[in-house]
Amino acid sequence: MPLRTADEYRAGLADGRRLYYQGQPVADINQEPDLKVAVDHAAIDFDLAQDPGHRDLAVATDPDTGEEYNAAYRIPRSPADVLARSRLIEAGTAAGGTVVTLIHEIGTDGMFALLRVLEGEGRERAEAFYRHCRDGDLAVAVAQTDVKGDRSKAPHEQDDPDLYVRVVDRSDEGIVVRGAKCHTTSSANGDEIIVFPTRAMGPDDADYAVSFAVPANTEGLSLYVSGYGGGGGGHDAFDHPVSSRHKLLETLTVFDDVFVPWDRVFLCQEPEKAGALALTFVEYHRFTAVSYKLPLVDAFVGAAAQIAEMNGVMKAGHIRDKLTHLVAYAETVRALTEAAALRSRIGEHGIAYPDPMTTNMAKFTFASGFYKAVEWLQDCAGGLLVTGPSGADWANPEIRAVLEKYYRGAAPAADRLAMMNLISDLTAKDLGGYHAVLAVHAEGSLEAEKLQMLRSYTANHAPDAIAYARRLAGLD
Hints:
This protein is of the alpha+beta class. Helices cover about 50% and strands about 15% of the residues. The chain has two domains: about 5-270, Butyryl-CoA Dehydrogenase, subunit A, domain 2, CATH 2.40.110; about 275-465, Up-down Bundle (Butyryl-CoA Dehydrogenase, subunit A, domain 3). Strands 2-1-10-11-7-6 form a six-stranded mixed β-sheet, with no helix packed on it. A four-stranded mixed β-sheet has the order 5-8-9-12. It has a two-stranded antiparallel ribbon with strand order 3-4.
């Protein structure tokens, strides 16, 4: 099957899926203004593959059949493949105005993890599902984070057993699952959803050790779309230059006795494999995260430099100091991301994966420095980020004349306010809040990143470092 067009992707979403948004059922996601913004944003991924200028990056060819497919589905076999994947994710996010499309990226992160960890019949099913998605150019979401309930308790200890997705029945035909996942990105506007365990499991948690895939319109599956998301159809393009056109959707993803046939079940009641599957997915997805952060940190640097010029303060020592810090922050994140790709390792079944320690260093550097970077950018801009005029003001010719007179700086008011509104959208309004929470929590918390850094260093680098120190101290 050839690569899908953006319109074919949109048409495929009219499949009777059960969606709820702002307290109401949604019959057609393409007809709801806020949600349509997210659909059009995700369609960028399909447009990119059709664009001659991006074909080398966005399109791959099956060497056996000669069929083309989206390059996000290319199974990485080398550091060069991992670096190319990072650049594809960066290109899509740049086209999305600093908002990742996450319509091919997260699903393939999950599929690569399945193909690395699983053996036997589970892996055969994962391979068949991978081919189904690749050849159909499908948009695939991953539902991993269970709602968890009381986090001091294991899954089987919860007062309500449905707070982690679990197997409630099995037969010769398949399994029946019940429970809920949260923070599920792109499920509302995806074609398929892969479910992963969220953590390591003990023997008593066997019913919760499950991984499978279902179409988004599966009977018994309900998707409750978050009212928050940093943008929507009601946003004015003057006030919200990015979020009026770019948006992600997150859902509470509820499985109400959903039947899953065996050919779509990858892991069932095997707690000894749950932790490895969860962590292997994270190895890929955290690298996706730092790859899609690159356009945002570049935008911070560019916007800070531009607004300093427009305000006429570029020569001020403290402004140049802040710009220097922003450059160092952005380029450190980029260098660590590229290093994670170049230091990739070859894992099970010959599948490459980004170096876990360097990936987590990149994500930790981004997340731990994000709020300071926002402060530097906002300090270069000034208070107009939150006190400036609205799009309705600017559209009124009489008011606009006043604004053009009094909001002129070292650049015309139109240019200065456009840059102010970009910075405000990225750091001070809904999208800015969304970016801020993503920095701390998405793809793993700061504590998770520190844990993985130390774990990876201890396993792979500490023995040589300790041996060297002992030689220097004359102990060996």
